[in-house]
Amino acid sequence: MGQSWSDMRKQLEQEYLCDSLKGRIQFFVTRYPRTFDEHTRIAIRVDGEELLKSDFVKWHRAAEGTAQSGIEIHNKGGFDSVEFYNAFYAYQNQSIQKSLFCEDPLVRLFAILDRRVGKRSLQKILPSIQNQPGWLRPFYLLRLTAEDITGSTA
Description:
14% strand, 44% helix, three-stranded antiparallel β-sheet, alpha+beta
């Protein structure tokens, strides 16, 4: 992967983040290496409150014995740090338009908060908010509210 978590976090919170949300969002990835499964916890705080909490072990155990794809688990908010990093690299290495409509909701998460997404693009996305996974909708609404875009039905 080649990039440290601190560099990635700096890019997410400062370089890529839209101006209207700078200073309000913090990304956290915590790995517990001494546990048998190297437990990972991912969180995103907005204004000091955790808006996203992904505990991969919890989701993995819940999905055990079912035929769920990685995307289906991601849609339910379950992912580990490797998937989080991979989504970031996909987002970072493709166009913002491709990221906004990517199958992976993690990539869409990074894209919706991106400074390169303007008000016109956000207005076009407005009707699709209801189709986003439940854990992702608040991030869409946060960005729309921060940009003073109304008309949300989510």
